[in-house]
Design a protein that fits this description.
mainly alpha; about 140 residues
Length: about 140
C-alpha cells in the first residue's frame, strides 16, 4: 500500500516537473517570437548578408534570453551532475559488494571441500570399524 502511495507521489512530482519545463519552454518560445524575432529580420533596404548593429534594447533582450537559458540549463546541469555522482557511488558500492560476494563464495567452497574430506574420512573409519567388528564376531 505504501509503495503504491509512493509511486503516486513520484508520478505527481514528475508531472509537476514536466509541466514546469513545458511552461518555461513555452515562455521562451513566446519571448523569442514576440520580443526577439525582429532581430532576425533585415530592415527595409538592408542586405541580408550584412549584420545590423544591435541597439541597447536588443542587447538587453539577448542578455535576458541568455540569462534565462543559463538558469534553466544550470538547474538541469546540476541535476545531471548530481545523478552522475550518485551513479558513480552506486557503481563503487556494487563493485565492492561483488568482490565481497566472491570472497564469501570462495569461503563457502573451501568449507564445502573441507566438509567433504571430513565426511569421507568418517565414512572410511566407520567402514574399517565395521570390518573389524565383523572379524571379531567371526572368530
Amino acid at each position: 500500500m505504501s509503495a503504491n502511495l509512493s509511486e503516486k507521489v513520484d508520478s505527481i512530482e514528475s508531472d509537476n516537473n514536466l509541466a514546469a519545463v513545458s511552461e518555461v519552454e513555452a515562455g521562451i518560445r513566446d519571448f523569442v517570437r514576440n520580443d526577439v524575432a525582429y532581430l532576425r529580420r533585415p530592415a527595409a533596404g538592408q542586405s541580408t548578408t550584412e549584420t545590423p548593429p544591435l541597439d541597447s534594447s536588443a542587447d538587453a533582450t539577448v542578455n535576458n534570453v541568455n540569462s534565462l537559458i543559463q538558469r534553466v540549463a544550470g538547474t538541469s546541469l546540476g541535476e545531471i551532475e548530481k545523478l552522475i555522482s550518485e551513479l558513480e557511488a552506486l557503481r563503487d558500492l556494487l563493485h565492492a559488494e561483488g568482490q565481497r560476494v566472491q570472497r564469501e563464495i570462495a569461503g563457502y567452497a573451501q568449507l564445502s571441500q573441507a566438509a567433504m574430506k571430513s565426511t569421507r574420512m568418517i565414512a572410511d573409519n566407520v567402514e574399517q570399524w565395521k570390518k573389524a567388528a565383523e572379524n571379531l564376531r567371526g572368530s
